[in-house]
Write a sequence for this structure.
């Protein structure tokens, strides 16, 4: 067992949990607007949301690193005016994860919203229900598989994050060194056993999460039909 | 009760047209809306419910302005006291029959009593704890009707509520509709293609074609023979034919008219006689 094993694993899970929770709050209104909105700028917004899917993580990490440092106006404002230094900190890698995992939350939710028949929404409106009540009582329960998909994919994807976290966070044990980076470090130092401990943990975790997702989805489909 | 003039651009098979309907409904009236598909029937109901925005005109309901072009006024669907029954029923799949009704009745005084009475009068009490997915088409239709009534609306809009049902179920539900309309003193607009249904239920009928009013007046009286066009589906033993009516998906069985032999696919002219009204 590597010396920092539990500390690293705790940090990895904390990053994934925080990213998933924050992205749920951020992704719901965004996905709702993308699914039902009729703005001319929708393709632009969709492209921005999907960008992290196609960009190398190091590109995102690099630009965030620059943005958070005192070589950019934003970074100088954060550091000098607000006293917030994001590079090589947990909030910094959390922000990076939010950007990196955004499409994994928004795309399933957007598809989920789009799949709910329009008449269900309209029926709720003709029954005097507000958009918020309709969202909470009709849309979200009807699209539970999509909701679960977004949550699980975001969590699992954040667990395996490497490039963005390495660029912004470096590899500070207990602060920014997550499991995937620890594997890399251990291999660099030729500690194959210790790398294996982390790798096996991530593999097991990812597998269990996906099995749970498919099991819940199957049960849910049986319940609603 | 309801007074409106509505204008809306329509995209029909014959090219762009304008839906243009001016009408006044008396309280308690039941108006049937008929006409070929693409005539603007569903659009008219959606405009009244506030689900689509008109291009011009006005809607006045019970002294309240729901829509006015100038000066601009618009009441969102949530604030229009009406019941809407969708063609696909639009029941909430995550809720049981009772929960569907409770969701609709929430915020009403005595909502528990309203739900109880509606379940009883639409014969849904035994199905109350089931989800919509396990119900038959006719049962789902009754739930949709009960849900639309749970808010105690004064105006009921029905978009082809019985089109997808088989003939016996349809006849039974026509009776339910007639009773509900009387009992709740509703002003009702019903889209229907079935001349017999219109004669049984409606006080007046509005025929639309490509957005324009073709005819507005009383429906054909009971006993009138209505010519219908159908297509032979099967030749049955005993000199009988199974015919699909051109106006919808309804299948009827008729004795083969003498004088010629029919094969599946042949067109056939029928006359339909409305035997009685409720």
């Amino acid at each position: 067992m590597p010396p920092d094993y539990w500390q690293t694993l705790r940090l990895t899970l904390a990053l994934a949990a925080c990213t998933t929770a924050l992205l749920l709050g951020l992704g719901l209104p965004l996905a709702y607007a993308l699914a039902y909105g009729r703005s001319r700028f929708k393709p632009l917004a969709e492209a921005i949301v999907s960008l992290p899917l196609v960009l190398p993580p190091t590109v995102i990490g690099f630009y965030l690193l620059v943005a958070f440092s005192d070589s950019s106006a934003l970074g100088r404002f954060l550091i000098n005016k607000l006293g917030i230094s994001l590079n090589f900190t947990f909030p910094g890698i959390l922000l990076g994860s939010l950007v990196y995992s955004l499409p994994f939350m928004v795309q399933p939710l957007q598809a989920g919203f789009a799949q709910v028949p329009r008449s269900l929404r309209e029926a709720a409106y003709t029954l005097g229900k507000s958009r918020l009540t309709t969202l909470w009582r009709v849309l979200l329960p009807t699209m539970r598989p999509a909701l679960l998909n977004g949550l699980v994919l975001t969590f699992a994807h954040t667990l395996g994050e490497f490039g963005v976290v390495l660029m912004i966070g470096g590899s500070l044990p207990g602060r920014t060194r997550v499991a995937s980076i620890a594997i890399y470090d251990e291999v660099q130092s030729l500690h194959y056993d210790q790398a294996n401990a982390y790798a096996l943990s991530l593999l097991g975790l990812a597998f269990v999460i996906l099995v749970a997702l498919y099991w819940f989805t199957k049960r849910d489909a049986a319940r609603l039909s | 009760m309801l007074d409106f003039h509505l204008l809306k651009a329509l995209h029909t098979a014959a090219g762009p047209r304008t839906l243009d309907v001016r009408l006044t409904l008396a309280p308690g009236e039941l108006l049937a809306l008929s006409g070929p598909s693409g005539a603007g029937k569903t659009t008219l109901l959606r405009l009244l419910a506030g689900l689509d925005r008109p291009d011009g005109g006005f809607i006045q309901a019970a002294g309240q302005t729901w829509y006015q072009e100038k000066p601009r006024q618009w009441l969102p669907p949530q604030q229009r006291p009406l019941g809407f029954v969708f063609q696909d029923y639009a029941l909430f799949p995550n809720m049981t029959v009772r929960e569907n009704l409770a969701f609709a009745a929430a915020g009403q005084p005595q909502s528990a009593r309203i739900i109880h009475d509606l379940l009883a009068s639409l014969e849904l009490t035994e199905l109350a704890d089931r989800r919509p997915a396990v119900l038959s088409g006719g049962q789902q239709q009754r739930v949709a009707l009960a849900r639309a009534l749970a808010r105690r609306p004064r105006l009921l809009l029905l978009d082809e509520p019985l089109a997808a049902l088989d003939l016996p179920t349809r006849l039974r539900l026509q009776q339910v509709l007639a009773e509900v309309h009387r009992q709740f003193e509703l002003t009702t607009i019903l889209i229907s293609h079935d001349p017999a249904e219109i004669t049984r239920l409606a006080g007046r009928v509005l025929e639309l074609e490509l957005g324009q009013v073709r005819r507005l007046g009383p429906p054909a009286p009971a006993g009138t023979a209505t010519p219908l066009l159908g297509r032979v589906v099967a030749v049955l033993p005993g000199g009988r034919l199974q015919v699909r009516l051109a106006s919808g998906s309804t299948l009827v069985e008729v004795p083969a008219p003498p004088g010629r032999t029919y094969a599946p696919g042949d067109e056939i002219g029928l006359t339909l006689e409305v035997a009685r009204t409720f």
Summary: The CA atoms of residues 181 and 251 of chain B lie 28 Å apart. The radius of gyration of chain B is 20 Å. Residues 225-273 of chain B form a domain with the OB fold (Dihydrolipoamide Acetyltransferase, E2P) fold (CATH 2.40.50.140).
